[in-house]
């Protein structure tokens, strides 16, 4: 019996959250796995989707990319999504799975729309508590499945070619590598102080700096074009869709309110948070379950002024073990099954579809 699986999304990060599961399912003779959606243009209610534009660069064969119109007439046993509002067939689908595309102290994933799904692949105990605190998901609700975050499995395994990645960016490994990865929300640190921070870090001559703009910033700005004049031998724009290898490469992460900070706690390395008070204010006023009193930014150092970033970076690298206990506690609370989340997802699929029990292998 064949199990038919569909994934839909509109940004690279969405598919990257599913890709470890895709890699397993695509090898199964008893499973057909497809993707739909694509890079999104237009306005709500009239979006157009470029499936090839999204999925081809991420290695999905053309024969597995279905236009949104085509999925309306096909039947699927399980439909995965990592974005907030699912791109779904009008009917003809079975189990809906929300697997989220990160967990941050803004808790934008903790929302009532998530209850439109049959199963929530919860990333960790913290996320489960937040759903319960918002009155959305009781502790005993079986829709909440303790899976973890398959995207981050390689952070625990640590298998990557450091020398090749250094060479790709022209770095020789003699300097500490910094990764600057801001969120894409309005009033993020790139909009406020980011360019000044980049200039100071570049000019001080101590670091190799990688800059990874968000892959779908809310303001629509082309940060690659805007930041290109700041590139140099030791400052590079990272066009990689997958942030995980960049996290593995870096000795310190600079961010603001991005979920990437929580992913980085799995590596237990220093983190700098560029302060974004306007972004936080808007998050609070929008009704998001903003949580600065819990873990918040406690796993790193908050930098309020651009001119302090270089000194804060030097201090953090001089004492990388500072806040290590906090970072480890954060990682333990935020992630179920670290390094084994893909296994947990495949086990769940095997239980849900016992006729295809080999899915777990």
Q: Can you describe this structure?
A:
This protein is 32% helix and 17% strand. The strands form 3 sheets. It has a 6-stranded parallel β-sheet with strand order 2-1-5-6-7-8. A 6-stranded parallel β-sheet has the order 11-10-9-12-13-14. The radius of gyration is 20 Å and the shape is globular. The protein has 361 residues and is α/β, with parallel strands linked by helices. InterPro entries: Glycerophosphate_synth (IPR007554), TagF_C (IPR043148). This is CDP-glycerol--glycerophosphate glycerophosphotransferase.
Question: Topology, pairings included?
Answer:
Layout lengths: L2 E7 L2 H14 L5 E7 L1 E3 L6 E3 H5 L12 H4 L4 E6 L11 E6 L20 E4 L2 H9 L10 E3 L6 H5 L4 H7 L8 E4 L8 H15 L4 E4 L11 H5 L7 E3 L6 H6 L2 E4 L4 H5 L6 E4 L2 H9 L15 E3 L5 H10 L5 H11 L6 H12 L9
Parallel strand pairs: 1-2, 1-5, 5-6, 6-7, 7-8, 9-10, 9-12, 10-11, 12-13, 13-14
Antiparallel strand pairs: 3-4
């Amino acid at each position: 019996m064949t199990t038919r699986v569909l994934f839909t999304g509109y940004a690279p990060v969405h598919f990257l959250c599913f890709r470890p599961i895709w890699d397993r399912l695509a090898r199964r003779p008893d499973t057909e796995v497809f993707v739909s959606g694509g890079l999104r243009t237009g306005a709500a209610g009239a979006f157009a989707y470029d499936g090839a534009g999204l999925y081809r660069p991420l290695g999905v064969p053309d024969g597995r990319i279905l236009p949104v119109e085509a999925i309306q007439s096909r039947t699927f046993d399980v439909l995965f999504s990592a974005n907030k509002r699912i791109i779904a067939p009008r009917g003809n689908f079975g189990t809906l799975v929300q697997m989220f595309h990160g967990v941050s102290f803004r808790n934008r994933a903790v929302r009532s729309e998530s209850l439109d799904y049959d199963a929530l692949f919860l990333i960790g105990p913290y996320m489960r508590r937040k759903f319960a605190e918002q009155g959305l998901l009781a502790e005993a609700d079986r829709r909440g499945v303790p899976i973890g975050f398959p995207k981050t499995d390689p952070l625990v395994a640590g298998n990557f070619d450091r020398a090749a990645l250094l060479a790709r960016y022209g770095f020789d490994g003699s300097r500490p590598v910094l990764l600057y990865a801001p969120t894409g929300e309005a009033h993020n640190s790139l909009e406020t102080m980011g360019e000044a921070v980049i200039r100071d870090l570049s000019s001080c001559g101590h670091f190799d700096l990688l800059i990874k703009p968000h892959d779908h910033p809310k303001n629509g700005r082309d940060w690659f074009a805007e930041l290109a004049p700041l590139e140099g031998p030791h400052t590079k724009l990272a066009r990689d869709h997958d942030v995980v290898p960049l996290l593995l490469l870096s000795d310190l992460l600079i961010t603001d309110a991005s979920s990437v900070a929580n992913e980085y706690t799995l590596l237990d390395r220093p983190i700098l948070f560029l302060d974004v008070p306007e972004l936080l204010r808007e998050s609070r006023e929008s009704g998001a379950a903003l949580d600065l009193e819990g873990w918040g930014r406690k796993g790193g150092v908050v930098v309020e002024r651009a001119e302090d970033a270089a000194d804060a970076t030097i201090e953090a690298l001089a004492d990388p073990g500072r806040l290590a206990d906090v970072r480890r506690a954060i990682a333990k609370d935020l992630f179920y099954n670290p390094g084994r989340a893909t296994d947990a997802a495949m086990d769940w699929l095997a239980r849900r579809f016992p006729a295809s029990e080999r899915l777990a292998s």
